[in-house]
Design brief:
By secondary structure, the chain is of the alpha+beta class. The chain contains 4 helices and 4 strands. It starts with a helix and ends with a helix.
Length: 142
C-alpha cells in the first residue's frame, strides 16, 4: 500500500515538473538511464529542423551538443547527476547542431529523477536563447 502511494505521488510530481518545463521551454525530452531519448519528441525535432520523419527515439542528446567545451560541460552535468542520488535541477547554456549543420544556442533545464525501477532518468527542457546574457554568465558573476 505504502509503495503504491509513493509511486502515485512520484508520478504526480513528475507530471507537474514536465508540465512546467513544457510551459517554459520550446521542447522537452526525457532521457533514460543510459542517456538515450525515450521516444521521438516532435518539438525537439522541430527545434533542430529534423522533420524528415526519421524518429529520434534512442538517439543520444549529447550528439546534438556542440563538440568541445559545450559537450564537456553537458557530459559533466549529466554525469554529476547520475553519480549523486537526489541531485538538484540544473541550468546550462549550450549550442546544439541542427539538421543543416547550424548551431542553435539553447538553455537546458535539467531535472534528474528516480524512475520506478530505481534508475536515474532525466527531463530536459530546451529553450532557444533569446537574451544576450547566457545563464552561465549569470552564475559566474555570483
Amino acid at each position: 500500500e505504502r509503495s503504491d502511494v509513493q509511486s502515485r505521488l512520484g508520478k504526480c510530481q513528475l507530471s507537474a515538473v514536465s508540465s512546467l518545463l513544457d510551459l517554459m521551454c520550446d521542447a522537452v525530452v526525457e532521457l533514460d538511464q543510459t542517456l538515450l531519448m525515450r521516444e521521438h519528441f516532435v518539438k525537439f525535432a522541430g527545434l533542430l529542423m529534423h522533420t524528415s520523419g526519421r524518429s529520434l527515439q534512442g538517439s543520444e542528446l549529447r550528439t546534438f551538443v556542440r563538440e568541445g567545451e559545450d559537450r564537456q560541460r553537458f557530459d559533466e552535468a549529466l554525469h554529476k547527476s547520475r553519480a549523486e542520488h537526489g541531485a538538484l535541477p540544473g541550468l546550462l547554456g549550450v549550442s546544439l547542431r541542427d539538421a543543416i549543420g547550424n548551431f542553435v544556442k539553447v538553455d537546458l533545464f535539467h531535472v534528474p529523477y528516480t524512475s520506478i525501477n530505481g534508475r536515474i532518468h532525466h527531463l530536459i527542457g530546451l529553450r532557444e536563447e533569446r537574451d544576450a546574457v547566457s545563464p552561465d554568465a549569470c552564475w559566474s558573476r555570483a
